[in-house]
Write a structure and sequence with these properties.
binds adenosine-5'-triphosphate, 6-stranded mixed β-sheet, ABC transporter ATP-binding protein, ATP binding, globular, alpha/beta, transport
Length: 250
């Protein structure tokens, strides 16, 4: 007789365990994160908000393995990053993490197509052509692939950056104010696109933003204040997010 097996626990894409981060030393030391514990489930879209200086960038940098916590642990797909050496971290970031920045960070001399597959070329790996074609279609860049960034609008450049982030099928995409340099309506299009990658492909997405309307695209909004997660809201509306930010003094 076999007992009924318990369901396999869904592994978090990213998990932070009592993470602290101290910048600087001595009198100049700043505790940017103070005991942050959170699980970011696979296939979820999380927005991180908080007043200026609350620790959002530090959170993103620690969660993405760009920066090491002073104490505590960060797990990516269940693997503890604290024991991983610098070369291993670089490989993990390249293979398992996608980044989207406010300022697009494209290489100006390369075409959109070349920018999208650049991480593969740097890793000396062949891109999955069928997947890249699907990504290009989803982000709406068909017909624009031979243009250089200077020949593309801001929204199109951000689409290239998103395609580049998705091309390696990353475990997590981290986006830092991805609509910060775009006008309102282009920004909405980009957020809808990011949302669609979560809905269609179960892409895990973590986005830092100041904008309640942007955060309202997420499944969950985490609020940071003074280096701590002080609140979380599931599927909140814009007004609720804006209210919460006001009470945090933002
Ligand atoms: N490299 C650093 N050296 C010293 N202090 C730092 C460093 N990076 C960040 N800090 C400090 O840590 C705290 C958190 O900074 P962080 O950039 O994470 O906040 P933030 O919420 O992203 O802010 P903003 O919304 O203004 O970008 C701030 O007090 C900041 O001054």
């Amino acid at each position: 007789m076999h007992g009924i097996e318990s369901p396999v626990a869904v592994q978090a894409a990213v998990q932070l365990d009592e993470v602290t981060k101290r910048h600087g030393r001595g009198k100049a030391a700043v505790d940017a994160l103070r005991g942050v514990s959170v699980e970011l489930p696979s296939g979820s879209f999380t927005a991180v908000m908080g007043p200026s200086g609350s620790g959002k960038s530090t959170f993103l940098h620690c969660a993405a393995g760009l920066d090491r916590p002073t104490s505590g642990r960060v797990l990516l797909e269940g693997a503890d990053l604290s024991g991983v050496r610098e070369a291993g971290l670089t490989r993990l970031r390249r293979d398992r993490i996608g980044f989207v920045f406010q300022s697009f960070n494209l290489v100006p001399s390369l075409t959109a197509r070349q920018n999208i597959v650049l991480p593969h070329r740097l890793a000396r790996r062949r891109a999955d052509k069928a997947w890249v074609a699907e990504v290009v279609e989803r982000v709406g860049l068909t017909g624009r692939l031979d243009h250089r960034p200077g020949e593309l609008s801001g929204g199109q450049q951000q689409r290239v950056a998103i395609a580049r982030a998705l091309a390696a099928k990353p475990a997590v995409v981290f986006a830092d104010e991805p609509t910060g340099a775009l006008d309102l309506s282009t920004g909405r299009d980009i957020l809808a696109l990011l949302r669609a990658t979560v809905d269609a492909w179960r892409q895990t997405l973590v986005m830092v933003t100041h904008d309640p309307a942007a955060a309202a695209f997420a499944d969950r909004v985490l609020f940071l204040a003074d280096g701590r997660i002080v609140d979380a809201m599931d599927r909140p509306g814009v007004a609720d997010i804006a209210d919460r930010m006001t009470t945090l003094g933002a």
